[in-house]
Design a protein that fits this description.
The structure is a single chain. The chain has two domains: 18-196, P-loop containing nucleotide triphosphate hydrolases (Rossmann fold); 198-230, no CATH class. With 230 residues, it is α/β, with parallel strands linked by helices. The chain is globular. The chain starts with 17 loop residues before the first helix and ends with a helix. The protein has helices spanning 18-32, 49-62, 82-88, 100-109, 120-135, 152-162, 200-209, 214-226; strands at residues 37-43, 66-71, 140-145, 170-177, 192-194. The protein has a five-stranded parallel sheet, with helices on both faces.
C-alpha cells in the first residue's frame, strides 16, 4: 500500500495537498465525534478535486466510516432529483422508517410514490432524517463530485440537510469547478476549501513518478505555468 510520507492515511499519493488533506481529515474527525459538518472543495477543471475525494474515501473507510458517493452529470442537470436519487438509492430500505410525509417525499424521488409536486422543505427534511438514521449505525461520509452539474432540486434538498447537521455523525464534502459553482448557485455560503495549482517542486515529483524524463517534466511545467485556464 503506497502512502504519502507527509500524511499517514489513504492509499493515494497526493503531491502538494497536505494542508487540504489535513483540513478534510479534521472534518471527518469532528463527524466521528458527533459534530457534523460540510465543506465545498473548489478549483479549476483538472486540478485534482476528484483525486482528493478518492483519497478521503479511502482514509475515512480506514477509520470505519460508511460512504455514499454522488456525481453530478451534465446532461442530467435539468432532471429534478437526479442527483438526490443517487444519494437515497443505497438506503431505500430505510425510507419506510421515516415519518409518513417524509417517506412519501422520498418515495417520489425513488419513483415509487405519487408525484404530489416538489415540497422543498419536506424533501430536505426527509434527506436529513434519512442520513441521521443511517449515521445511527456508524459515522457517515457523503461525497458529491462535479457538484456544478447537480440539479437544482437535489442541491436544495442536500443543502437543507447540510445546514442542519448539528450533532449528527455526518460529514459532507462537495467538489465543484471554479466559474461554475458561484454565488448564484445553491451551494453559495458553504465553507470552502480552494485548490491552487501545484508548485514547481510538487509538479516535478508528480511527473517524475509518472515516468517522464527531465526534459518532458521541464516542458510540461513551463507550459502549465504559462497557461491561464478558463
Amino acid at each position: 500500500m503506497v502512502r504519502d510520507d507527509e500524511f499517514g492515511r489513504g492509499t493515494e499519493v497526493l503531491y502538494g495537498r497536505v494542508g487540504e488533506q489535513r483540513r478534510l481529515d479534521e472534518l471527518v474527525t469532528e463527524a466521528i465525534a458527533g459534530r457534523g459538518g460540510a465543506v465545498l472543495v473548489r478549483g479549476e477543471a483538472g486540478i485534482g478535486k476528484t483525486a482528493l475525494l478518492d483519497w478521503l474515501a479511502d482514509s475515512a473507510s480506514e477509520r470505519g466510516m460508511r460512504l455514499v458517493r454522488v456525481r453530478g452529470i451534465e446532461h442530467e442537470a435539468d432532471l429534478a432529483f437526479a442527483g438526490l436519487l443517487q444519494l437515497v438509492w443505497p438506503f431505500q430500505r430505510r425510507v419506510a422508517k421515516l415519518p409518513e410525509a417524509q417517506a412519501d417525499a422520498l418515495r417520489s424521488v425513488l419513483g415509487r410514490g405519487k408525484d404530489r409536486g416538489a415540497d422543498r422543505f419536506l424533501t430536505g427534511l426527509a434527506v436529513l432524517t434519512l442520513l441521521a438514521d443511517v449515521a445511527e449505525d456508524g459515522p457517515l461520509l457523503c461525497l458529491v463530485d462535479d457538484a456544478q452539474w447537480v440539479d437544482q432540486a437535489s442541491a436544495e434538498a442536500l443543502l437543507f440537510a447540510v445546514r442542519r447537521l448539528g450533532a449528527e455523525r455526518i460529514a459532507i464534502v462537495l467538489a465543484g469547478r471554479d466559474g461554475v459553482v458561484e454565488d448564484g448557485s445553491a451551494f453559495a455560503g458553504l465553507t470552502e476549501l480552494r485548490l491552487s495549482r501545484l508548485g514547481h517542486e510538487d509538479s516535478a515529483r508528480l511527473l517524475r513518478d509518472r515516468g517522464h524524463s527531465a526534459a518532458v517534466r521541464s516542458r510540461v511545467i513551463a507550459e502549465s505555468l504559462a497557461t491561464r485556464w478558463p
